[in-house]
Amino acid sequence: MNGLVMLLIAAVVLLAAYLIYGRWLAKKWGIDPNKKTPAYELEDGVDYVPTKPSVVFGHEFASIAGAGPINGPIQAAMFGWLPVLLWVLIGGVFFGAVQDFAALYASVKNKGKTIGFIIETYIGKTGKRLFLAFTWLFSILVVAAFADIVAGTFGGFNAAGEQVTANGAVATTSMLFIIAAVGLGFFVRKAKPNGIVNAAAAIVLLTICIAIGLAAPIFIAKSIWLYIVFAYIFVASITPVWGLLQPRDYLNSFLLVAMIAAGFIGVIFAAPSINLPAFTSFAIVAPNGSVSYMFPILFVTVACGAVSGFHSLVASGTASKQIENEKHMLPISFGAMLVESLLAVLALIAVGSLAVGGKLPAGTPPQIFATAIAGFLTRLGLPENVIFTLITLSVSAFALTSLDSVARVGRLAFQELFTEDLSPGQEPPAILKVLTNKYVATVATLIMGYMLAILGYANIWPLFGSANQLLAALALISCSVFLKKTHRQGVTLWAPMFIMLGVTFTALVFTIKDKGGKLFAGTFNVGTDFLQLVFAILLLGLGIMVAVQGVAKLAEKEIPANKKEGAAA
């Protein structure tokens, strides 16, 4: 297979999916461009902020992409390029894009509330509590995995203690991005520039940051960067969205789109061969004897790029509170997901081009991706070291922007978990006041995330993938119930929902069986294996309980005559 042919096929499929399937869903569910959105109805200057669609798209895309669409396809390529490509295209269109649109749609129709609120309204309070606990645990996994990835791309020294210039330049530029984002946020807030001026300011700031970063790299050890990253996401999770989250994601969206465009151009000019077999085996045996089965491993490894439950948290947690007009929902959710699928195809082409004799190249997925794209672009006369640094910067930007969002989502889930319904004038107990404090909730989330982060993302990623896909199934359940209760057609969500339940329950059972086997065999690692076993058991238990409640509601024959809030529109 030729990489250019693969990329063109993917681009045509994804564009057709948006124009045909996406628009069909929007028509079936109903979009009212004249209805006042939650961003205007509940505007508070912190979370509910009416925002231009280009900025919200940048926030959504930068937040959902993370390192997932690069890591997943490259790791799953051990099964061959064909299973990965098919899952990215089929999953991206009929699973991921549908979930993202449904989550954003349901949230906007329910005053910008989260998936947890939607579960409470249409399934029940117990389901909401269970889902919030699941969401909090999942957020911890995302924080841990992505914080370790970011700290690794910032680490200024390799294993031999030598300076890594590319990482140092990425670190400098990323820190400057944060400062530039705050400045851009205040500029937009006070001056309210039009879209062209806003974009021009962002591009100028990006260029300055990158130039300084390349000229003045910072060399700090990864362990120190891990502390800095956690300090940053603590601040990011409690800062008003217009002050840091929105402008930083908007800045990064230019960089990320430029990276995809550069990859696309590189593939066109290089037309690389895919040096991997179309299919290898349903079971891959590792050197240590462990076996990876294509079902369910492929479907939990390739999450972002196909379907990712994390997207539903971003859509309903932050993006829904910034939508200016309902007609913007389709491109911001469905469209952003399909662009992410295109990035996953680029990652697959990258690893295939560097493979030798059908074997995957050495290195981490971000390194493999950056090396391949830099190699493509050198054919245009561009310096390889500069391109490698910029691609690494883009990958790091993906992960760091996801950290911005997931830290906030985890904090909100923790607060909501301990929020009680009180009568007018009734004061909550002192302990609940403490637990619902945003600073306490943030610290609780980040401490757990740090404990897992020190284990390294490689030990977290399999569990993160399973939890992520189970979250997608639970989001699909809640959105299916919402659509049914509000007399909208939601049957298109049912097949993805049941398939993902089967995939994720199987994956978590495999994890529990593997860790339990190590425990009885005496090879159990108290650090890595114990935490993975505990998280797997908790996630499986919570997932089953939420799924049972949701499917029971979905199976109810009688639909109330009076539509609940959110049905009209």
For the biggest sheet, the summary is: 2 strands, antiparallel
Look at the structure and give the mean pLDDT.
Answer: 89
Q: What is the rounded distance between the termini? A: 47 Å
Label the overall shape: globular
Please tell me how large the radius of gyration is. Answer: 22 Å
Number of strands: 2
Helicity level:
over 70%
Structure class: mainly alpha
Strand arrangement within the widest β-sheet reads: 1-2
Order of helices and strands: HHHHHHHHHHHEEHHHHHHHHHH
Binned strand content: under 5%
Give the low-pLDDT segments. 564-568
Treating each run of at least 4 consecutive H or I residues as one helix, how many helices? 21
Describe this structure in words.
The termini are far apart. Residues 564-568 have low confidence and may be disordered. The protein is built from 21 helices and two strands. With 569 residues, the chain is mainly α. Helices cover 72% and strands 1% of the residues. Strands 1-2 form a two-stranded antiparallel sheet. The longest helix is centred in the C-terminal third of the chain and has 34 residues, at 384-417.
